Amino acid sequence: MTSTDARREIRDEAHRLVEASRRLFEAGVMSHSGHANLSVRLDAERFMLTPGFVRGLRPEDLATVSLDGQVLEGELQSVSMEIIAMHSAVYRARPRVGSVIHTHSPSATAFAVAHRPLPCRTEPMLRFGQAEDVPVVPWGPRGSDVSVRGVVDALTHSPTTAAVLLANHGLLVFGPDPADTAHLVVAIEESAEAELAAAAIGGAVDFPEGALETVRASIARVAS
């Protein structure tokens, strides 16, 4: 790959990250403050990361960082430096992950604050890659070794999960690219809202046995 091709690829990834951020705001799944951090993998050793607040995000706001925590291009405030290790941990644990998104989506965060796994009881969660409960990572100060070890442990114990709840903090979601990861953030937040609403009318009900296979067959039939 020539240097021109490499610059073009980085520019394209930056625009994909900005677009994912915009879609999250349009979907109404962001916290009042607009705090979040999004990243996209560039290669085996680098990823692109947003600043701590992403409302009105622009490509030039992004920084390129290494998995070992070095800022290679751009600038990050100290509030963002703390979360490099969290994103790096996911990329190291899941080589096929291409994007990581952390939000304080209100309903999902309610489950995180309650230390309650979020059940998979809505079809969008099945369709967008979270066909199991979203596990809770024990609390630790943001970016600390305790917090990062908790994320890694959760990924080890739940090897097919595409999301975790950070206790007393928020939501962490990962997927193949920024668009798909943002879709799953929205699906999880909608599911959390539905769970909370269903509690007022008797409680949510699990899918029937074999629901995932049925959904996958339906998707394959349309795609064929």
Automatic annotation (TrEMBL):
Keywords: Lyase, Metal-binding. Residues 15-196 form the Class II aldolase/adducin N-terminal domain. Pfam families: Aldolase_II (PF00596). PANTHER family: 3-OXO-TETRONATE 4-PHOSPHATE DECARBOXYLASE-RELATED, FUCULOSE PHOSPHATE ALDOLASE. This is Class II aldolase/adducin family protein.
